[in-house]
């Protein structure tokens, strides 16, 4: 690995750290482009997903905003299929301490949730991996707000993350478990906590390091 490849982050003229990542589904057509900027005091990530999903060809745009410690403060998702003139849109806003608003109304049913999980985007795993900052062998159980696609009806899910290899400049490895469904996967991530390999689910198509 060259010295350039060992540092996947790029620094913009503003001094902010910027990443562009592309993923494809493990099987079948589709692509996701993620543009993430670390502003130092906050992180902003914007994504575009194009793929067939449950017999619909959909276009999904999303935005994640966190504070410097990766506490989620705002998530927006807009989804449209070929038949819709206007996209369906949902917005979640958090205070960073487990209290939420959904579409500008209090959502006490999600009290205690710290993260938002958008189906079909591996960036959803990056936020808790960075926020938890686990050491080797450590595990943490969390509650997350899950946004299924294409319905976008939020539900509460219980999840667990276990550190298999701590996050370092060249990456790390973490086990993700959905405690409600029983699904589990071992995730390889790069030095910024962005998924490189999500077995049977996603492949990173660029950059490959």
UniProtKB/TrEMBL annotation:
<dbReference type="Pfam" id="PF06475">
    <property type="entry name" value="Glycolipid_bind"/>
</dbReference>
<protein>
    <submittedName>
        <fullName>Glycolipid-binding domain-containing protein</fullName>
    </submittedName>
</protein>
<dbReference type="InterPro" id="IPR009467">
    <property type="entry name" value="Glycolipid-bd_prot_put"/>
</dbReference>
